[in-house]
Amino acid sequence: MMTSKIIEYANNLIKLTDEEAEQLSNAFKEVNIKKRQFIVQPNFTAKNRYYVLKGTLMAYVVTDEGHNHTITFAIDDWWITDYNSYIFQQPATMFIVALEDTIVLQIDHEKEHDLKKSNHKFETFFRIMAERGLASHQRRIISNLTQSAEERYENYASKYPQIVQRVPQYALASYLGMTTEFLSRIRNKRVAKKS
Known about the structure:
- The protein has 2 domains: 4-146, Jelly Rolls (Sandwich); 149-195.
- It is 51% helix and 21% strand.
- The protein has helices spanning 4-11, 18-26, 83-88, 109-118, 120-146, 149-159, 161-166, 169-176, 180-194, and strands spanning 29-33, 38-40, 48-54, 57-62, 68-74, 79-80, 95-98, 102-108.
- The radius of gyration is 18 Å and the shape is globular.
- It starts with a helix and ends with a helix.
C-alpha cells in the first residue's frame, strides 16, 4: 500500500509503534493528480498538505503585471502546499500545479491538527519538517542574495539533478531568478565545457 511510504518517511524522523504507524497512515488519503491539474489556487483556502509519492508539482505566484514567479517544486518524497494558507486557514496566494501525472498522499488541516493533539510524536514529526523547510528557504534566500545566476544554477543542478531534468526550463529559470534565455546560455556553456 502506498501509505507505507509515509510510515517509512516518518520513521526516518521519529520512531513509530505499529499502532502509531497505523494512526498516521489512516490520516492520509491517496490522490491522483493529472498533468496541468491545479491543487491550490489563489483566493481559495489550502485545506490539504501533500506528500508526493510520484510525480512533480510546482508552486508559483503571478504578479499584477502577469509575470510568473516559481516559488518551489516538489518531486517524489517531498512535501508541498501554500503553507501560509494551510497553516492559518486563509485564502491562498499561490498556484500549485502538476507538471506531470502525480500521485500524492494528502492530509487535511483538521486531521493533522488531531494527530498532533493525540500524540507528541506527531507534533515532533511536523515540527521537524517545518524546521527543515525553513532552513531550506533560508538557504535559497541567501543564495539569491550572494551568488551569481551561474553559481545558483550550478549549485542547484548539482544538488537537485532530478529536478533540473524533470521541470520545464521556463519554470527552473523563474525559480533561479533569471530569464529562460540566460539559463539556456548557462546550460550551453556547461555542455561546451564538458565537450
